[in-house]
Amino acid sequence: MSAESEYKELKDRFLTVAHLLDTHDKCKGSEKNGLVDAILNPYGLHLYLPDWLLEDTRRKGKNVMYKLFDKVADAVSTSDSTGQDVIRRAKDAVSCDMPSDPIFISRLPGMCDKEPLLLNAALKIGQVVRDNLKKRVGRAVKKIYQDLHHTELKQIRRQLLLEAKIVADNEKRSFRIALMQEINNSYGSDSR
Predict the structure, then answer these.
(1) Is the pLDDT score of 98 beyond 70?
(2) What local confidence, expressed as pLDDT, does residue 145 receive?
């Protein structure tokens, strides 16, 4: 996984868990720890949801038909669709107000002040961002160095060509002068 895709995944999980913690006051102690640990875990967040949150979600349908449908769906389904629904709704709520990367990173300290358990996840995100920036800056510096080196070589080549032309012109001029003197001397010594 590239550093950029790892960052996007961590950002998405971080904001989803922060939203769940912010909107569900019942979440206490080990449940909070489990959710926060899920940010750094590559498996699905829905596996870490507390049971009471799943029950609250199931109870939202007041109609007897909804409850019956939930029971039948639970019996037939092998996956944790209710947990995935909770995560999907949280992600939908977060995506409505998805901050840009610079804003998200600048908000991390405030989010950690509000919920100190998020600190390790925020540090991991900071590490991924720093590593990604290091790579990008390294590549940019290397490219700039190569461009400057290429430009410098072109300038040196131009300078050498110019100096070679000047030397060649001077040699031609010296040869012409010597030839003219030789011709003048040969006419001057020959009386004919």
Answers:
(1) yes
(2) 96
Looking at the structure of the chain, the number of domains it has is 1
Please give the average per-residue pLDDT across 170-182, as a whole number. 94
Inter-helix orientation angle 119-189/3-23, to 10° = 150
188 located within any domain: no
Confidence check: pLDDT of 154 > 50: yes
Q: Tell me, what amino acid is at 40?
A: L
Residue 174 covered by a domain: no
pLDDT above 80: residue 7: yes
List, in sequence order, the alpha helices (H) in 24-118.
29-40, 51-59, 64-76, 81-96, 101-114
Residue at token pair 């908000």: 107
Q: Of 15, 81, 24, 22, whose CA–CA distance to 50 is shortest?
A: 24
Domain ranges, residue 98: 3-135
